[in-house]
Write a structure and sequence with these properties.
The complex is a heterodimer of chains A (139) and B (337).
Chain A: H1 2-29, E1 35-37, H2 63-66, E2 81-83, E3 106-107, H3 115-135
Antiparallel strand pairs in A: 1-2
Chain B: H1 2-13, E1 21-23, H2 33-52, H3 62-72, H4 76-103, H5 112-135, H6 139-154, H7 172-202, E2 216-218, H8 219-243, E3 244-245, H9 263-274, H10 278-296, H11 308-330
Antiparallel strand pairs in B: 1-2
Helix pairs in contact in B: 2-4, 2-8, 3-4, 4-5, 4-8, 5-6, 5-7, 5-10, 9-11
The chains are: A mainly alpha (139), B mainly alpha (337).
Chain lengths: 139, 337
């Protein structure tokens, strides 16, 4: 039994680490990414400035591929603007630029479709594990 | 009647071939971590096949199809949760398995090849994790792919097959999807088959501190143990899927960098923050280091107390990674790439 407790503890330590990792997201999600005036210290694509976004020639990353007409966002900032990293050293307010909120883990709501069945499946998995643990067939 | 039927099935299926002896210590958690990883992989394959029925690998619709799955399809959120958490649990058990193999020196003669195959499987799993992250096509996915393409471009002709220029007109997301659901799983399954074959061929390693040969048990008894361990893993995955929904953002805004990678990749995010070219340099150095272990370490000693250098290296490796993951989780990007 102690071995199982130890193992489950290890698993949850990693999961807690996961939570810490996404804690970074959490912090960032409270702030909003915004574009601002072009600067030579663009965090992500500074070395690509002359060539702009390395993905720009990709059809995959064309705004028209990603969004419907009404949702098209500026994929390539105009020559006087550039995107800045959110939450760091470059934050300005520009209401015209798209806002991005980082995705994060959420608690599942009990109103989710099929939650009762999902709980039943989980319970069944628990019963199988409990049964195998107590009876131990073949061991 | 039942016994007769069982005997007929055993004769026809050759189940008696599984009655071979293996060391008794195989029925322990630390020697079953590989089996637990395999259980998670099985869950990933089954849930992945189901997910594929709802996913549209098209840049315009990929993210929306996932939102539709999660919000509108009956049990869709649960299915996606199971797939996501199976990947998380697999990562943990796989890392613990590798640490156990190193700790007990199970990579040493004559099992060097199996260590190399295991590292290969680990690399493939990480690639699957990466491609899976990209497929959801939200901001995190876009940024992950942007970094990957930057590395591919820096690699010049070697990186060309990984870019869209290799197959112009074909959206990269389609190719990534193909890799995620067919190419990579096929490679992994073949490598797992080889891994299991060499475990059988060389037999499970003895306990490092054993003074006499271990007591044996039939392999079927180990299979029964793994069945229980696998059901425990499934229960854990189901519980996590039932309670915590994995992140899923909206369609990406190009040119922004606002997210952090999943925790499995946060260490490289931290390294990138220190020195951008580490995106290119760090992975091959780490892979090379892991592959070199059985070649460099020719010491026949297996017990950890008599391998101070190896254990120090292992502890240092774990500490550095843990520190980078924690630091990468709390820091914000300050570099220019």
């Amino acid at each position: 039994m102690r071995k199982y407790i130890f193992f489950i503890t290890i698993i949850f330590i990693f999961i807690a680490q996961n939570a810490i990792a996404h804690g970074g997201h959490k912090k960032e999600s409270t702030s909003i990414a915004e574009a601002e005036e072009k600067s030579s210290i663009d965090p992500m694509y500074a070395t690509q400035e002359e060539e702009s976004d390395p993905l720009e020639n990709s059809g995959l990353f064309s705004p028209s591929d990603l969004f419907m007409e009404s949702e098209i966002v500026p994929a390539e900032p105009n020559t006087k603007t550039d995107m800045k990293m959110e939450g760091s050293h470059n934050e300005h307010d520009d209401p015209n630029m798209p806002k991005v909120v980082s995705a994060k883990h959420k608690a599942v709501e009990t109103s989710a479709k099929g939650y009762g069945i999902a709980a039943g499946i989980t319970l069944f998995a628990g019963l199988v594990f409990a049964g195998l643990t107590f009876i131990r067939p073949g061991e | 009647m039942a016994n007769g039927l069982t005997k007929i099935l055993e004769d026809r299926l050759g189940i008696h071939l599984l009655e071979y002896d293996i060391p008794e210590h195989s029925n322990s958690i630390k020697y079953s971590l590989g089996g637990m990883t395999l259980s998670s992989f099985g869950v990933l394959v089954i849930s992945g096949i189901l997910l594929a029925q709802f996913f549209i690998p098209d840049p315009e619709r990929a993210n929306r199809s996932l939102h539709y799955l999660v919000d509108q399809v009956y049990l869709g959120w649960y299915l996606r949760g199971i797939h996501f958490w199976a990947g998380e649990v697999l990562t943990v058990t796989m890392i613990l398995h590798a640490i156990r193999v190193f700790f007990t020196a199970s990579y040493k003669n004559p099992r060097e090849i199996n260590w190399l195959i295991g590292i290969g499987i680990m690399m493939m799993m990480i690639t699957l994790l990466f491609t899976g992250t990209v497929l959801k096509w939200d901001q995190e996915a876009y940024e992950a792919l942007a970094h990957f393409l930057w590395v591919a471009e820096e690699m010049g002709p070697f990186g060309l097959p990984l870019t869209e220029a290799f197959a112009q007109g074909v959206p990269l997301l389609n190719r990534i999807y193909m890799a995620h659901i067919s190419l990579l799983p096929i490679i992994v399954i073949v490598m797992i088959g080889l891994h299991l074959f060499y475990i059988k061929y060389h037999k499970l390693s003895q306990l490092p501190d054993a003074t006499k040969p271990a007591k044996n048990i039939p392999f079927t008894q180990h299979m029964a143990y793994l069945r229980r361990a696998g059901s425990g893993i499934l229960l854990l995955i189901c519980l996590l899927a039932l309670t915590i929904a994995p992140p899923l953002g909206e369609e990406p805004v190009l040119g922004l960098e606002v997210t952090k990678p999943p925790w499995q990749f946060v260490w490289i995010y931290a390294l990138e923050n220190l020195w951008v070219p580490s995106l290119i340099v760090a992975p091959p150095i780490i892979i090379g280091f892991l592959l070199a272990i059985p070649i460099v370490d020719q010491n026949k000693e297996c017990y950890w107390k008599r391998r101070p250098l190896a254990i120090t290296v292992l502890a240092g490796f774990i500490l550095i990674f843990a520190a980078l993951i924690i630091w990468g989780s709390v820091t914000t990007m300050t570099h220019s790439m």
